[in-house]
Each structure stands twice: as C-alpha cells, then as structure tokens.
Design brief:
This protein is an all-alpha fold. Helices cover about 80% and strands about 0% of the residues. It contains five helices and no strands. The radius of gyration is 16 Å and the shape is elongated.
Length: about 150
C-alpha cells in the first residue's frame, strides 16, 4: 500500500521543474504530506501486529514514469505550460493515492476498526484538499498564463 503516493524522489525532480512559486510550495507541502501519510499507514499496520514493509506498486510506477516523461525528460519549455503539465501529472498520481487510501479506509470501517478508519479518512481528506488547491491554482493562474503563451 505504501507505493500508492507519488514517489518522493520523483516528486523532488518534478518540484525542481516548477516555475510558479505557489506550485513549488504546494509540491513541497505534498512531499511532507506523503511522509506523514506513510507514517500513519505504518503505525496502523504495526498496530495490528503486522510487519510494515514497502511494496512495489506497478500502477504507481507507470504513473511516475509518465509524470517524469512529461515534466522532466520530454517536458515543455520552462514556464506556465510546464507548470500546467506538472499539475496534471501530479493530480493523476494523487487520484491514484486517494483511491488506495480510500479503499483501505473502507476496509477498516467494515472491520469496525473505527480509529484506524478515521485516521485513513483524514489522510484521504488531506489528499483531496491538496488536489483542490492544485485545481484552484490551475484555474486561477497557471492555465491562464499557459494559454497566453
């Protein structure tokens, strides 16, 4: 489950490409959120007397590879068009993470692990807030600037 959020190393590469200050701040905040959510997940797993181990997720691997392709390797020139691509790729990865954490939250709720479910639901809400902030930034600034060229 841990591989469900954008890879920290990949996100560091993507952050370096961003030119919009607000976007850079949101991406940095997201890196902090990934670490926080991973810690919550680790604690919940260990709280069930299970050993925490990172698992490789081929789905996220593909999303990360595509994000790096479109934002680093074959990225548009620096500026608003690149920032728009960064937001799009970031949101694709985040939506995948929301799905993973949301599913685990639903399982926890079904198992009547209400405290665990609440912590997982809080992580999902946090991811939704970050996604909403990215959408707002895209609509209010980045996409407008990208259209202007």
């Amino acid at each position: 489950m841990v591989g469900q959020r954008p890879d920290g190393q990949a996100l560091k590469k993507i952050v370096k490409q961003a030119t919009n200050d607000k976007l850079m701040d949101l991406l940095q905040s997201s890196q902090d959120g990934i670490a926080k959510h991973t810690d919550v997940l680790k604690a919940l797993i260990e709280g069930q007397d299970e050993k925490f181990k990172k698992e490789h997720c081929k789905g996220m691997e593909g999303l990360v590879a595509e994000a790096l392709k479109h934002t680093v390797e074959e990225a548009p020139k620096s500026g608003p068009v690149l920032d728009a691509a960064i937001i799009a790729q970031y949101q694709r990865m985040t939506h995948y993470g929301i799905t993973g954490f949301g599913t685990v939250a639903a399982f926890a709720k079904a198992l009547k692990l209400n405290d665990d479910a609440a912590k997982l639901e809080a992580a999902v809400e946090d991811m939704h807030r970050g996604d909403d902030l990215m959408s707002e930034l895209a609509k209010s600034a980045v996409n407008i600037e990208a259209i202007k060229g």
